[in-house]
Design brief:
Oligomer: single chain
Shape: globular
Number of domains: 3
Number of helices: 27
Distance between the termini: 37 Å
Strand content: 5-15%
CATH superfamily of the largest domain: Aldehyde ferredoxin oxidoreductase, N-terminal domain
CATH class of the largest domain: Alpha Beta
Strand order of the largest sheet: 2-1-6-3-4-5
Amino acid sequence: MFGWTGNFLKVDLTRNKAVAEPYDSLLALSYIGGRGFAAKILWDQLSPGINPLSPENKLVFAAGPLTGLGVPNSGKLVVAAKSPLTGGYGDGNLGTSAGIQMRQAGYDAVIIEGKAETPVVLHIKNKVAEFIDAADFWGLTTFDTEAHLKAIYGSSAGVVSIGPAGENLVKFAIVISQNGRAGGRAGMGAVMGSKNLKAIVFEGYNDIPVAYPQDLKELNAAGYREIMTKPSYAFWKKQGTMSTVEWCQENSTLPTFNFSEGVFEKADKIGGFAMEKIKVGNRGCPNCNMTCGNVVKDSNRGESEIDYENVTMLGSNIGLGNLRQVAALNRLADELGLDTISLGNVIGFAIETSEKRRITEKLDWGKYTETRDLIKDIAYRQGFGSLLAEGVRTAAAKIGHGSPEWAMHIKGLEVSAYDCHAAPAMALAYATSSVGAHHKEAWIIAWEVKFGRKGYTEEKINKIIEMQRIRGGIFEFLSICRFPNTSLGFELEWYTKYLLAATGKEMPFNALMYAADKTLNLIRAFWIREYGNNWTREMELPPMKWFKAPLTEGPLKGAMLDFVKFDGMLKTYYGKRGWDERGIPKRSTLQKLSLPDVAKQLEKYVTLSD
């Protein structure tokens, strides 16, 4: 094969064994790589109903066929497992040289199973895998862990690690690389910690075979030049995603006080222009000339890499309007290995629950020191922090007293940073995301604001499906950053050209969309298999706050979602996807996507419609 290495590495931590497993070209052409490989591996190799934090779970690191080939913005790595936070399929991607090194070591994916008896670091160097005692690393932050490992193995080594949050099995612990590149917000860090795996070090020195190397080289250079010609490029380099703060404030979608409001009185203190005043540099993933990571001096005089999501979730959503302090909380979260989106949610939930006197803990909005201490308690599972470490769904269920109505999650994953009181399409994108309430598969809110936010229309549903196929499918299985396309307008045709040069295979856009539908339906089937008859359409309804508690401030004061119209929208979406009224793929849909074996397995757990 060209483009693909043709090998996975299966690692058994219980037995300290690592074995290369070849796979065939049919798998590569069907699932492409990245998320596609991860979903297929987990579907095939996991027994239904296993405890996500048991040795039986498998942690998959997977890359795409363009990773390591110098393609613009291709330095991404997918990490996936059964999620301890949601109980369904979980994944995320992070920008890291580890993906490139993994591919150059000869593997398109590493599959980790079992549990080490004591903490270990896995060192993969070309065809050799070593299990290194990690007693001296256990307890270290992610930043210190990577620094120590690079001092041993060299600065070019690719490192992914967990912090104390992963070690302590916080359900939204993540995997960190390169001092702030984070991935796996559905608890992939907890899965890694449950296996006593502190870090993986990748070193690869092999060339990845490509079909047309000269064509690929020329295309790469042309792509980088093209990205730099886009009209928004210069401003992007200044602010990256941070300009979204001002945009959301203007359009009443800025998460504020646990998603109670869409505007924040101190938005100008945490936005893109405020960021520019304290900015000291940029960071980006490997092979990136967009460098979306804005590095600022925080209130501790350290450096923190910030973007829109962590600034709003640890800023406006918890009532904190000091950007240097927000940056310090973000760095703390990265060091401890906590997902900042879920973290901002659980803190906002806790403050609102305290405000409503449903708990005895006294918490208030915008308190930096109090929040910093609570973050540490969550990571180390101390006191009230231990309950919050379970995520808002579980915390609300245990607290009760009406608190589930302001627990901001869908399918157990906390909502990312867009308020949807007046954005039904964005709410639907959250509802139907493959991992729970995440924006990456269909960031439709800008389109919705531009073309009309009030309607619950078929046009919006069609647009969400299109975005999910591209963002949640193509970019995820190519394991490549979506920002050149979604933020600057870098044309999708470039990626079919890159694939042809790399693999020698003609993969037209419609074939990639088919592969996207296949992968997304396989992930949906994974959820259904895990939940069985407990799966209901109600699991995909947005938080009740958006239906029952209207906005009280800003230009859209009084706005909230209409339950009946939204439910109808969700049913229509299911129909267009070829799913029944419960959101379960029909037998005919799975057969059309060449997944008859998946249909046969699902019938053991639920009744399928024809």
